[in-house]
Amino acid sequence: MGGSAVVVGGGIGGLAAAIGLRLIGWEVTVVERAEVLSDVGAGISLHANGIHALDALGLGEAVRAAARPQYTGGTRTPSGSWLARMDGAALARALGTPIVGIPRAELHRLLRAALPSECLRVGAEATDVEHTGTTRVRVSVDDGSLRSGLDANLEADLVVAADGVNSRLRGRLFPRHPGPVYSGSTVLRAITEQPVASRTDFELTWGRGAEFGHIAFRDGRAEWHAVLNSPPGVRHADALAAVRSRFADWHAPIPALLEATRPDAVLHHDIHELTTPLPAYTAGRVALLGDAAHAMTPHLGQGACQALEDAATLTAALATEPTVESALARYDAERRPRSQSVARAARRAGRMGQQLTHPLAVAARNTALRLAPSGVTVRAVLQHADWTPPAWG
Hints:
Mean pLDDT: 94
Number of helices: 14
Low-confidence stretches: none
């Protein structure tokens, strides 16, 4: 089965879906509202399930070559004492690949390179979607098309809505859904300008209502993120100075990471999630994917991995099912229970980790983590990262 598809959204999930569809013979147009297609994020950890999804899409080896495996690290207190250590080698043995750290921009570049430039339509915003018959879908596009000579509307056999947490298409398809809500946490993050010495590949540090984490990259630079309990909309005239003040007395290498960061490199975003699960990930011949379908908090590091799973699963369904309708029904049946379960687990992880503020609750959690057997951390990661892409090749 082949056909034509419009993918709305040129982020990690949207590009991965476009790659998968092209691999099985579909004609694809990616519509992205940004003028330049270059994911401006900081860094990302990809668990085994995300890597295996990339393997299915033919990009696993390229991503591994550009990334740094995460074998050492764990969770600490602000003073530097260990709460739990991560055995990355044990995870790699169990799952067939290690967790890896990579700049988001590099991952995005690798995804873009797998697509011909003519299928990417940037500076174009999808404003509406409607079915024009039993087998066709029309996407309304606002990009100054009358001036450019391009069609203002795109018709296809399938539309993939990968337009993020604030998805306009999700609102059109599910008008009664309340949409995303603020999680109670905000995140500041950046990539250091130069290499920073670190004894580990990955660390999280939990304080009261705050988390500081970092991942090391292949070139020695590092991504750091600070997640804070905060009212929504709070912004700082100097974001880097605010982070330095908040984490001034936290353990090394946190001060060195902040010292190696340019003030203009710090990104600041409030974290929103879909606490009300969608009743379906499909509507007619439209499939929702990634944050548009299941925006979750970052506390398990699974957001991008779940989007990659979506892309690999959608590809497999369309490659093996006899009709688009049956393929989308299978996609919904396979993806909705799993991704919504991961989203709930991420929310719980945040409440028991970064978001805890009461001293007694923090002390009880820290004691439980210190006393837990060494295999508990491995089993916790395996619970979500142990996933095999459906066969379609």
